[in-house]
Amino acid sequence: MARYTGPKTRIARKFGEAIFGADKSFEKRKYAPGQHGNNRRRKTSEYGVMLAEKQKAKYTYGVLENQFRNMFDKASRESGITGVNLLQALESRLDNVVFRLGLATTRAAARQLVSHRHITVDGKVLNIPSYQVKPGQIVGVRERSKSLEVIADSLAGFNHAKYAWIEWDEAAKAGKFLHKPEREDIPENIKEQLIVELYSK
């Protein structure tokens, strides 16, 4: 499946946020990339602000343009607030749910677990990172993958209580997707209304 594989610290510095997770290089240089990044004072246009917000959302969740646009179109056809619908769809992706369950330290690592067939949905192995997990479904670790060191390390000390829409079963190494998260429960710093305005132009 196509995905962004370029320099992540550079992208994080562009937005001024560690959108790919903990990054020592980003912590050292939080200003924009490039020779004049620390001195740049250029004013961004209204369109540029909206475009940047969309790009930040895409990079945060690891979704490319066509897929992101399709998700937005579907969100706009659903009842409710389009921007919130979009974020809920992104949060419902299987790779993101695996990340929220603490089975991987980053969404990229979660995507790899799914692609390599280590993850199950309702007991069946599923290797489609973009799969939309539905309320009531159980996402877990394949039996023969439960001893993987990378999963154990990621789970060590992870606080599952911080995500109210997921119920974790430590013994089964699985989590139940209770419902789509409310906007106030989604921790990502994304101004979804700017994305809606961008696509409405």
CATH level 1 name of the largest domain: Mainly Alpha
Low-confidence stretches: none
User: For the largest beta sheet, what order do the strands appear in spatially?
Assistant: 2-1-3-5-4
Percent helix: 40-55%
Percentage of β-strand residues = 5-15%
Number of strands: 5
CATH topology tier name of the largest domain: Ribosomal Protein S4 Delta 41, Chain A, domain 1
Number of helical elements: 9
**Domain tally:** 2
CATH superfamily descriptor of the largest domain: Ribosomal protein S4/S9, N-terminal domain
- Our Rg estimate from Cα atoms comes to 18 Å
CATH architecture of the largest domain: Orthogonal Bundle
In round numbers, the mean pLDDT is 88
H and E string = HHHHHHHEEEHEEH
Quick structural overview:
The protein has 201 residues and is of the alpha+beta class.
Could you characterize the architecture of this molecule?
The chain contains nine helices and five strands, in the order H-H-H-H-H-H-H-E-E-E-H-E-E-H. It is of the alpha+beta class and 201 residues long. It has two domains: 8-89 and 188-200, Ribosomal protein S4/S9, N-terminal domain (Ribosomal Protein S4 Delta 41, Chain A, domain 1, Orthogonal Bundle); 93-179, RNA-binding S4 domain (Structural Genomics Hypothetical 15.5 Kd Protein In mrcA-pckA Intergenic Region, Chain A). A five-stranded antiparallel sheet has the order 2-1-3-5-4. Helix 3 packs across helix 9 (192-200), helix 4 (65-77) packs across helix 5 (82-91) and helix 5 packs across helix 9 (192-200). The longest helix is centred in the first third of the chain and has 16 residues, at 46-61. The two termini are 30 Å apart. The mean pLDDT is 88.
